[in-house]
Specification:
The complex is a heterotrimer of chains A (about 230), B (about 250) and C (about 55). With about 230 residues, chain A is an all-alpha fold. Chain A has 10 helices and no strands. In chain A, α2 runs antiparallel to α3. Chain C is an all-alpha fold and about 55 residues long. Classes of the chains: A mainly alpha (about 230), B mainly alpha (about 250), C mainly alpha (about 55).
């Protein structure tokens, strides 16, 4: 019974992952964008190891924000263009679960690779081993928030003039708590303070956005499809 | 009870709200002018010089009301948005759209006067103080709302999308404010603590409250003016607009 | 009244730039906004009467 309820959710994830696998370049492009942006910072600031260690958490987190933005525009747009989205909205299956599945797929494609490659970039910034683990943990908790809130923005700007720039204008301010708690966790640890407070707040933001975002995205999509 | 409900829904239609708004505007506009004149008189001429900040503190009489209004207006927008999504009244979306530019103006004025206050008091135009930073983010939220509404051509969709965004924003505002404060305490070294507001003499408090009331009246008058424009623009071809055009 | 003469008032105890910069910006914003709205309203009404003439 339970698996039947979850069916549209799993279905949406599998479908989007399959589609992503066919367009591998998109995943790779977003990932390389992340790597290049983060690598540009030392070139702009200078190779001072102490300074770099200090800005590393913020730099990596901002890189992750921007990399997430890249993929967001294509979260609903292709399905909207070929009419699949409209069919999903009209289908007897729960539209919210389908949307939630799409968000999870987006995270698996754009968030997870960032989490996995972050320690390598952290090494370039001379982060100690403990902080690398913490950085991964904070990104693991934080990148889903980026996908969830981003989905609301993507749904609101679906098919709208100048969607890409508008999308970033709408959601970047909303990303601030995730950025502060996520980068702050690593910074606090580097400064010898505990990171638990930051991580639990990041977790709280994740829970709140898990609760609201799929529902708000669904509402926004219904508005866009009217 | 049911009678008052009926009345409210009667005014929820643009055709009957338009003349009502037109009758209300002069009252709020003159209230804003009179209260503003009294507030300026108290603030600029009557209130005593502050012991610590000299005459520079007088900025408080516009800075604090502008900051308050920028926050209130966002809450009112969220209120209209919730109402609009729940009851699907056309008026709510128009009111939200009418309030946004004024809210953005106040957020901007709050930042502007804050910078002009900060320069002589802290020695810097901008410090990463929790309140200043949250105000800046609020300004960004306003800009996002206005950009979204102006990018969507269909007014109904613009209203609904704007309402959703305003609600998402209003859930986020406390979280953002809390996170910025948290961030501020983590980076103690980098920030200058906000100088406490000068110990409030009664005249200062009175001046500030009168100015705040003047800003309220101004906001209501402007929102009504703008909502009338929006109504006309959206329903140019309908009968009631043609009847009212000459008024 | 806090001020002895007009010059003292304008000088604002040395904070003239900051105080008048703040009050001036607020006054500018809060006068410009109603003026722009009036213009917007006139433009709409002009368009409306234009429509009627055509009909």
């Amino acid at each position: 019974m339970k698996s039947q309820h979850a069916a549209p959710f799993i279905l949406a994830i599998r479908r989007d992952l399959l589609l992503a696998a066919r367009h591998k370049t998109e995943i790779v492009t977003a990932l390389f964008f992340f790597v290049i942006v983060v690598n540009l910072l030392p070139l702009g600031i200078g190779p001072d190891a102490d300074l770099l260690r200090k800005i590393a958490p913020g730099a990596l987190w901002i890189g992750a924000l921007l990399a997430t933005l890249l993929g967001l525009q294509r979260l609903f747009a292709p399905d909207h263009a070929d009419g699949t989205l409209e069919q999903m909205a009209l289908s007897p299956q729960s539209f919210t679960l389908l949307v939630a599945g799409k968000i999870v797929a987006h995270w698996l494609v754009s968030g997870l690779p960032v989490v996995l490659i972050a320690p390598v970039l952290g090494l370039q910034f001379d982060l100690p081993g403990r902080s690398l683990g913490l950085l991964m943990l904070s990104l693991l908790l934080g990148t889903p928030i980026l996908s969830l809130i981003g989905a609301v923005g993507a749904a609101l700007t679906l098919g709208v003039r100048g969607g890409g720039a508008l999308l970033s204008l709408l959601i970047l301010p909303l990303y601030i708590p995730a950025l502060i708690f996520g980068a702050g966790a690593v910074e606090a640890d580097l400064a010898g303070l505990g990171a638990e407070g930051h991580l639990s707040l990041l977790g709280a933001v994740l829970v709140v956005s898990l609760f609201f975002a799929p529902w708000a995205s669904t509402l926004a999509l219904r508005v866009a499809l009217e | 009870m049911s009678h008052s409900l009926v009345n409210w829904f009667k005014y929820a239609s643009p055709a009957s709200f338009y003349p009502l708004a037109g009758r209300l505007i002069p009252y709020f506009a003159s209230a804003a002018a009179v209260l503003g004149a009294i507030g300026l008189w108290i603030g600029l001429l009557f209130a005593p010089t502050d012991a610590q900040q000299g005459e520079g503190y007088r900025i408080i009489f516009v800075h604090v009301p502008a900051s308050w209004m920028s926050m209130f207006v966002y809450c009112i927008m969220a209120f209209w948005s919730a109402l609009g999504l729940a009851f699907k009244t056309r008026l709510s979306g128009m009111m939200t759209a009418a309030l946004a530019p004024t809210g953005a103006l106040f957020a901007f004025l709050s930042l502007w006067t804050g910078a002009l206050w900060g320069k002589p008091m802290w020695g810097a135009w901008w410090v990463w103080d929790a309140r200043l930073t949250s105000q800046l983010i609020l300004f960004f939220l306003y800009l996002g709302f206005i950009a979204l509404q102006s990018a969507i051509d269909d007014p109904r969709r613009a209203d609904k999308a704007g309402a959703l965004l305003a609600l998402v924003g209003v859930i986020n505002v406390p979280i953002i404010y809390f996170s910025v404060q948290w961030w501020n305490t983590l980076h103690q070294g980098a920030s200058v603590s906000m100088t406490k507001a000068p110990s409030m003499a009664h005249t200062m408090l009175a001046g500030m409250l009168v100015m705040a009331l003047a800003f309220w009246a101004y906001t209501i008058a402007i929102a009504l003016m703008r909502v009338r424009c929006i109504m006309l623009e959206r329903e140019l071809s309908s009968e009631w607009v043609k009847r009212n055009a000459t008024e | 009244m806090q001020w002895n003469n007009w010059n003292d008032f304008l000088h604002m105890g040395g904070y003239a730039v900051y105080v008048w910069g703040s009050f001036g910006a607020c006054a500018l914003g809060m006068l410009l906004e109603p003026w722009l709205l009036k213009r917007r309203r006139h433009a709409i009404l002009a368009r409306l009467s234009g429509q009627e003439n055509v009909q």
